Amino acid sequence: MPVYNKLVRDRIPEIIEKTGKAYKTSILSHEVYIKKLQEKGFEELQEYVEANDKDSSLEELADLLEIVHALAEFHGSSISEVEKIRAKKAQERGGFKEKIYLIEVEDE
Q1: What is the largest CA-CA distance in the chain?
Q2: What's the CA gap between 50 and 40, in Å, rounded?
Q3: CDD domains in the record, alphabetically (predicted)?
Q4: Is 95 left (phi over 0), alpha (psi -120 to 50) or beta?
Q5: What sections of 1-108 are H helices per DSSP?
Q6: Is residue 94 classed as helix, strand or coil in its secondary structure?
Q7: Are the CB atoms for 43 and 7 separated by under 8 Å?
Q8: Nearest-angstrom CA–CA distance, 53 and 70
Q9: Which of 48, 87, 93, 101 is the most core-located residue (most Cβ within 10 A)?
Q10: Other C-beta atoms within 10 Å of 96: how many?
Q11: Considering only CA atoms, which of 81, 40, 87 is closest in space to residue 63?
């Protein structure tokens, strides 16, 4: 039986069960859950970086967004609150649409 030892989406056990395969899961503690969410975020970001086409890229971005939703909830907030913060920062500091790459800034 392959060993995965990773955080999975909530319906994965149900999907596995429908195949008739045996599986083993556990419920993570609060402390371990946040660490595994963070690891999953890096995993999904790496998969996005390695995606070779638009559809794969969008699939991986959707996975990243699901992680962001879960992280916001973990911190007692919501994606709408995260979006408000993002919008405020974009208004104050801009976004990344202009593709500006900072080379250096003169020291005083």
Answers
A1: 68
A2: 15
A3: NTP-PPase_COG4997
A4: beta
A5: 12-18, 30-50, 54-74, 79-93
A6: coil
A7: no
A8: 26
A9: 48
A10: 7
A11: 40
Q: What is the pLDDT of residues 17-75, one digit of tens each?
A: 999 999 999 999 999 999 999 999 999 999 999 999 999 999 999 999 999 999 999 99
Q: What token pair was written down for 92?
A: 């104050």
**CA 84, CA 98: separation in Å to the nearest integer?**
21
Rounded to an integer, what distance in angstroms lies between the CA atom of residue 7 and that of residue 33? Answer: 8
- Which tokens belong to 13? 């056990």
Structure tokens at 30: 């609060």
**Domain-wise residue ranges, the chain:** 29-93
CB of 63 closer than 8 Å to CB of 44: yes
